Amino acid sequence: MTGTDSGGAGGAGRGTDGNERTFAALPPAQGRAFAQTWWGRAWLKALEDTALDLGQLKKGRKQARDGAVGAVSVRPGRITAVVRDRDGTAHRSDVLLQQLSTEEWDRFLDMVVERAGHIAALLDRDMPPHLVEEAASAGVELLPGIGDLEPECACDAWDLCLHTAALCYQVARLLDEDPFVLLLMRGRGERQLLDELQVRSARAARTRRGPAGGEDAGEGSGDEGADGSAGIRADEAFAARDILPPLPPPPPVPPEPGLPPSLDTEAAPPPGIDADALEFLAADAAGRALRLLVDALSAGHERQPLDRELTPGQDAVRLAASCGDPLIAVRLAEGTGRQRADLDLAVEAWRHGGAAALAVLEEEWQPEPEALARAKADLAGAWEDGERPQVRAGVAGRWTVVGADVQLRYGRDGRWWPYRKVRGRWGAAGPSAADPASALAGVGAGA
Fold first, then answer.
1. Cβ pair 58, 160 in contact under 8 A
2. pTM of full prediction above 0.70
3. What is the pLDDT of residues 17-76, one digit of tens each?
4. Hey, CA dihedral for 185, 188, 191, 197, is it positive or negative?
5. Which of 277, 341, 394, 417 lies 20 to 30 A from 436 at CA?
6. At what angle do helices 54-65 and 162-177 cross, to 10 degrees?
């Protein structure tokens, strides 16, 4: 192949030949993330998942951020740069990435030609997720995965060292600007790819027009998509419904939530951003997402009532109940204007019954005459003769057992909640029950 492969990465790339590009050293990256695009972040994830020594990874990120990485050479299967230590010692560092085979390139190029939108996105220095997903479906993995990045460094480290890590962080900045850098690493330069796409597009157009140069039945008949790709007639798709293979079973549910991203970087967070709080909230979101997935895949999930949206105060109680960290509990109490003792009572109630239990603790409501009559009937009929405890009616649907620091509360949902007085304050003592006798059964203390 002849010619140069220039452009991209903000114009920083200099072509030495069609299959190599050299990028001048980038300035320090103080105060900014190394990857802004989703494919740049995917590159860094492959790096971080591969590293066995996170300490070397952190040092490499610091070296890259300080501008210790020299000019970067990108060619099929390899990236190279000189990385300097803080004392000025220079090390040649390389990272290897397996090239795509000829068959894989053929599948990828045919897939891109089928959708004009893919070509337009690449020319616009964009790599839409569906392009990568469709390539993976065709058996072509564009982005690296765990273990795909193989480091080599003159420092003789046997694994990823700070120099090769710094090189990978710098390359993430190049990838942000130009996804053709990734395609070159996989084996083909930009000019070669565009030439091949042009040839295949012309061949596909001739095939659609037919041997005599006329249009076939599909061309110009309204069967093309908005991006120019050939469509399928609705009656044909409907007729093929019985011969299509069944959908594959859903993947197994992971046993636990994934790890949230680490925000431990050398750069200080912007004013007003609490990195520790963000990490905590990300971990909580991952846990909630897993629970929602488990519920969605469970039998009869469509009949389960939808959870109502929580208020900030309710969500703070939920967070405190799920984490068990006293320092976080203190911050949640301050953020919601609660005393720590009030938050502890709210957390105990939440653990017995979620938002409904919290409402019984904190809300005072006077049952309507019909609801009050049902409650009194429950109290009268819940025990055998002589076993009914003596209770004293209070406000807001509450009945206190005489001679014991035990109380029954009647909820808006018609269920009974047991309460116990501890150090002069009433707190939830157990889950709710359909009748008052069952609610008091586990409380004891003379009830």
1. no
2. no
3. 457 899 998 888 776 678 888 888 888 888 888 777 788 888 988 999 889 999 999 999
4. negative
5. 341
6. 60
